[in-house]
Amino acid sequence: MARITNGILGAFSGKVGAVVGASWRGIDYMRGLPEPSNKPATPPQLAQRLKMVLFRGFLLGVDQIIENCFQNYDKKTPMNSALSYNMQYAVTGGYPDLNIDFPNLLYSKGDLLSVWSPAALSSEPNTIDFSWQNGAFSNYRSAEDKVTLVAYSQENMEFVTLTDAGLRTDEGSRLIFPGNFSGQQVHCYLSLYSKAFNIASTNEYLGLVTVV
């Protein structure tokens, strides 16, 4: 059943026969229902579906960061852009043995300049210390840029994030894990966000670190 929102000559939402009415970002449109197909899916189609399954739930673990920081996209939501990017560039292996390529994973993408020589090290229980160096400050590398820290445990299938971990000028910050992560290996990332200019940096992969 369809619903008319602005009178008989207005747009409608829902299904009428073989036509579906909907709206996206304030633009009303209609499309026909897809024709059912009896053809078996090809290997590339199956691989694409598996990539979608691989990333759709996974990226929800950093959805708030993606919403603010995945930039430079065209006519897509930040989440859809992140999904599209990672399905194309952050997958390793061949179908059906596909896996996430963690060094190439992006949850933040933008024009803000990153830091120099970022590193992550665990020397105390349930903590990882992040460090970096700064270049000359400018509009694209400000002392007031906020640091975001991200770690992902494959064992727990869990992200641990700290979105206000300090300022670029601090050249260091600590991520404290909830519960007991000691002995686990986690993938570590660092990115920055400028509240003044509403731009983010592309996140840096700092490697796989064993939590003490």
Can you describe this structure?
- The chain has three helices and 14 strands.
- The protein is an alpha+beta fold.
- The strands form four sheets. Strands 9, 10, 12, 13 and 14 form a five-stranded antiparallel beta sheet that branches. The chain has a four-stranded antiparallel beta sheet with strand order 1-2-3-4, with no helix packed on it.
- The longest helix has 14 residues, at 43-56.
- The radius of gyration is 21 Å and the shape is globular.
Strand content: 25-35%
**What fold name goes in the CATH topology slot of the largest domain?**
Immunoglobulin-like
The 3D shape can be described as globular
Q: Largest sheet at a glance? A: 5 strands, antiparallel
Question: How far do the termini sit from each other?
Answer: 58 Å
Q: Which CATH architecture of the largest domain?
A: Sandwich
